[in-house]
Amino acid sequence: MGSAGLILEDKVEKILNGGGLEVKELDSAPEQVKPVILRKTVCYIVCAVIINAKNEVLMMQEAKPECYGRWYLPAGRMEKAESIVEAMGREVKEETGLDCQPITLLLVQEQGPQWIRFVFLAEVTGGSIKTAAEADAESLQARWWDRESPLPLRSRDILCLIEAGLKYREKPGFPAALPVEMPCHLICQRLLLTFSGPDGDLWVLLGGSKELHLPVAACPMTCALSWASRRLLKECLPSSYRQLTVSSRGLLGLQHSGRVPGETDGICFNTLLSVEHAGGGPEAGQPPLPESPGFQWHRVERAQLRDGIRERLTSGALLPVHSLYC
């Protein structure tokens, strides 16, 4: 393997381990791609699941008129020029009085790029819990909830989030994953798309008109995030796409930096996928042939990298994405 192959596999390994890479080129995109703008064309929500030593969950009491007096996890919309982690810490502080730090993202929920919620598992690092005497426009008060005492909830959608936090505390289902601060101007997916051969070989799909890289697809604003990868594959493999089984396994990580409002409000989701031939035949042991000159397969040479990718594919140890799009 030459030096170019070594550099490429170093980059693949970086993404596999939760790191980030600059988005330099789009390999699949609608005809017109414009930078997304926070709170205008996209809305990002942060939410924190914080559990104490007694397995009680930190809750806040809503002050908003439409849900006044109801209880919910500390959560809210990101503001301009914030990182995702900063937004989570700010919301927890404003609504509960406590300082915290993230342990990991638990999951990502999306209704297309226009609404994305980042759910964290976090831990308290300081502060004092907000009392009724400190009620303000952010919340009326905060408390620890044992999950058994009656509590009027704003919505039951948080119950599955709490359960995900409890499960992760008991047995982490994937390596701790936190957003990487790297700028991006749109919502996109970087694909670590793999094909496994019967003899132990493993390939990853590459794109690039200038320099080879893991392909990046812009996400359409009116569809689920996964449509970006589907569109890219249909463009790359138009004849064989319907004869393939494509599985989106989950996120290896994500990249965001909103430091320049209106220019870097985008997010790159680094996604692991696998593809295989739906039927048998002599072609089943080789990856499907790309029909676009902008794509090619790279056979992974480094044994440690092959093993690392296979382990994530087999174990399913990936940050989940839940699509609420309908």
TrEMBL record:
Keyword list, A-Z: Hydrolase, Magnesium, Manganese, Metal-binding
Gene3D superfamilies found in the cross-reference section: Nucleoside Triphosphate Pyrophosphohydrolase (3.90.79.10)
Cofactor(s) needed by this chain: Mn(2+); Mg(2+)
Enzyme Commission no: 3.6.1.58
Catalysis: reaction(s): 8-oxo-GDP + H2O = 8-oxo-GMP + phosphate + H(+); 8-oxo-dGDP + H2O = 8-oxo-dGMP + phosphate + H(+); 2-oxo-dADP + H2O = 2-oxo-dAMP + phosphate + H(+); 8-oxo-dADP + H2O = 8-oxo-dAMP + phosphate + H(+)
Manganese in keyword set: yes
Any Pfam family matching the protein: NUDIX
Every Nudix hydrolase domain range: 40-166
Function: Mediates the hydrolysis of oxidized nucleoside diphosphate derivatives. Hydrolyzes 8-oxo-7,8-dihydroguanine (8-oxo-Gua)-containing deoxyribo- and ribonucleoside diphosphates to the monophosphates. Hydrolyzes 8-oxo-dGDP and 8-oxo-GDP with the same efficiencies. Also hydrolyzes 8-OH-dADP and 2-OH-dADP. Exhibited no or minimal hydrolysis activity against 8-oxo-dGTP, 8-oxo-GTP, dGTP, GTP, dGDP and GDP. Probably removes oxidized guanine nucleotides from both the DNA and RNA precursor pools.
PANTHER family, sorted: 8-OXO-DGDP PHOSPHATASE NUDT18, MUTT/NUDIX HYDROLASE
Family stated for the protein in its record: Belongs to the Nudix hydrolase family.
Protein known as: 8-oxo-dGDP phosphatase NUDT18
Species annotation: Conger conger
Organism lineage string: Eukaryota, Metazoa, Chordata, Craniata, Vertebrata
